[in-house]
Design a protein that fits this description.
heterodimer; A: about 500 residues; alpha/beta; Rossmann fold; 2 domains; six-stranded mixed β-sheet; 24 strands; about 35% helix; globular; B: about 300 residues; mainly alpha; about 75% helix
Chain lengths: ~500, ~300
Amino acid sequence: MLAVEMRHITKRFPGVLADDDVSFDVRQGEIHALMGENGAGKSVLMSILSGLYRPDSGEILVDGRPVKFASPLDAIGAGIGMVFQSFKLFPSLTVAENVVFREEPTRHGLYDKRAAAAIVTQIAERYGLAVDPAAVTGSLPVGVLQRVEIIKALYRKAKVLILDEPTAVLTPQETDRLFEVLRSLQADGHTIILITHKMREVMAISERVTVLRDGRVVARLNTAETTGEEITRLMTGRDIDLEQSPPKSAPGAPVLEVSGLTCRQAGQKPAVDNVSLTVRAGEIVGIAGVAGNGQSELAEAIAGLRAADAGTVRIAGTDVTAGSVKVRRAAGLSYIPEDRHAVGTAPDADVASNLAMGHHRRPPLLQHGLLKRARLADFAQRLVDRFGIKVAGTGVLARTLSGGNLQKIVVARELDYASPLLIAEQPTRGVDIGAIAAIHKEIADYRDGGGGVLLISAELSEILSLSGRILVMFEGRIVADLEAAATNEAELGLLMAGGELAGAGKEAQS
Amino acid sequence: MSGFFDAALVESIVRALIPVLFAALGALLCDRAGVFNIALEGQLLIGCFGAVAGSYFTGSAVVGVIAAVLAASVFSLILSYGSVTRKAEPIVLGVAMNILAVGITSFLIDAVFHVRGVFQDPAIAGLHHFAIPGLVRIPWIGPALFNLTILGYLGLLLVPATSIVLFRTPLGMRLRGVGERPLAAETLGVSPASYQYGAVTASGVLCGLAGAQLALGNVVQFAENMSAGRGWIAVVAVMLAKDKPYATLGAALLFGSTEAIGFRLQGEGLAVQITDAAPYVVTLIALLFAARSFRRQRAAATVA
């Protein structure tokens, strides 16, 4: 019995064929993974199924009956609920208000707060989705917001739940909890479609997989009969090896020495609390931690974007504690910031300008105080070629690029400095697997070329595969310093949650 | 100065407060729906003219009020059509509407009534004041609060009414949702455009009532540019009150007091130029505070 069947769906946007004759079906009560690289057409396909877009051609059947969705409301009416990657919640409303929005329980014409809270509690308890109905959503962490979105869909009687990259924002522990929820929903007869490109999760939870590439279905597989390598090959059209070779030489002189660094914040615990660390030439030091435990603040304090209240920072031997960003960059810092849209690039500038930023201060781009347009274009083209950035030309605006290509621009620009020190913050967040492999290789090459890297990532597999040493950050402090080869995801997950390791493996310092 | 703060002063404070309050509640609804309405000044002026014209030609104050409401709400369609349907910048539209309103009314006062500057005529029926027996005898606040025009009572009652609608009904919840995250509302089948049209039209109705109160209640005449910045003050009042109904009443009270006290000081011999400037000085000071809390709010929003 098919819960959803999409037949020969084609959707065209100006200049792009997003979905090209895609047929996709999901069985009643299964967890189905929809996979593909960014731009493969999976989000568009699911937006069609959830009524956000209308297909140019093709038909949709729900429970065997043909349906036409003119709006998301129609899709909800047919029992299809979507949990978007960017949550569609109202920050100033409470959890309960968000859940019942437009389907509010009323009493004497007034909104019935108590009934709404009861509805939320009932759904939450049934599927193990812990939320406080009275909490204002604007103040809640993303893991909870996701649960609110799921409850919202269930309240609207969704039988088919579509989750778009649901684990992108979750810690390993939260991911496990989400999967428990999904399994209990499945046990209750719900059908779940998971859009993702994380192989481990697909193998762990799905029954079937549909793989899209360039807007076409390239495979329909039973998860039990396939492997991660096969799916990756289908998604990208080639073999991708995310394993990195170990460093070619032993670490050299220190390129970053941080000592006793502290960043206070008003009314709260210090964001960065007496952190000391050293990164040497030719090594990658990973910082693992649940988002919000001071990693971003630490990176900003080292980069000079945040004032430190105590401690010192030395870059390639120069004390830059009091220095501006410019001073630090001159001393030998490159920085891939966490937010590539707001900090890493200028969205309204073209690709060439974005690649030249910083490099524009000195020859050959600058001559007699003026920028050389022709050299700038050559310079940009060289980086585009070297890093395999997919753009129509270096004159297109940065805002038109996909996340992966935008990130490649930041990485290309920063690595081209060939500075002694690179701080890489979430270098592959939200980019597809092909781009991840390319960026990982560039970072490893940079290390082998004698650069020192401080890698901050929420992706434990990334930390484990790239780093030589791993520091775990919890509540602003470094709570563990481990050899990457001697640890694993489970151990790191425990430390990240504030736990302690049993036995002698612990080398925590504070 | 012993007789400075007397019952008459309280009365004139309330009188000055009502039109600002109406306009401010209109601004509040627009803000909540996500349309920044700075066309209130123009809407108010059009309302004044509609009220006087309606009342003069029919001899009925009620028709005057209806004409004011109609004129101001039709005028407000420029803002809703422009900013909601055509996605134009509401600030640019608002500025244009305010200039347009001055132009239209100056033209019409000449074309229709054949006078310049001020149109005053015994044929214009003003709004009656209804004293509530008993209550009106309460010293100080009695004459101020319980001897108002129908519109005066309505304006004061609209404060709790707005609060209830906004925070305790599904309609209000959806309006707030639309203003905050229009896309999220749309995915749930709530059309932001219709709520925004509704809010802007409501602001038209409220500015019409404000205009009627001003031109048929506070005085009985139409004067060129007689809104005299009250629409702008309403914009600031709502910013200061952060879109909360009761706080809006408080802010309107502040500006009403400034106007009434300024007027009284004028009677005491203070230069007109100084007393006339008083509401605007208060506006500037209030804006400084509002800007500061605005920034803080925005900072908090980005953190969230």
